[in-house]
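Meet the record:
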Amino acid sequence: MAGSRTPLQIVRLSALLIAIIAALAFLVPAAAKAGEWRLAKISGDVRVHGADSTWKKAKTNQVLRPGDSVWTGRRSRALIATEDGSVLLSARSLVKIPSQVLPGNMTVLFQGQGRLKAKVRKKKERHFSVQTPYLAAVVKGTEFTVDMRSGRTRLSVSEGVVGAVDPVTGREVEVTGGNSLTASASGKFGADQAGSRSARDARADHDNDSPGRSIFGHSRAAARGNNGN
């Protein structure tokens, strides 16, 4: 795909990703709504941005409401869980629970920055998705990592198969265990070549600690203002 994505395109990506995932959900039978998200474990400075538009310190076993965001500070981690699986957030990561409910049984998580590792319970149909401005990862059940920083997203698959969807074109690429794919603001969307740094990193379990940029509108500076993280 040629050319760079403009800021206006990036703003529109989340809505387009929702439409793509909603279309995928229509391909499978409707089911009960996926269970609520909760903070299963926290370590260090972890905060939640809720309906009152303020950042508050997270609590273990705290239930996350639709529209809530979770942020992890420096040297901090959080494990969020739902009945479909769990997601481990590395340091300085930001995710958001969708405000709207998608049709069918699709569980969706928006990622604004940082690194997460997802372990998804296996089902017959695709039921879980992590969305970033540059790609959406859609799975039936497997383990994968999404690393978002410096204007690009890298999807690394530990086992099984993950569908990577380009939000601009709707094109989907299957990424198998031990492989990775990179998508970026410049328009890159494709598998990493064997032996490249991205491909090697697909097998690494390092912790991301880069500040990045939020796509959710609220400031992370406010979240870490109380303790300087």
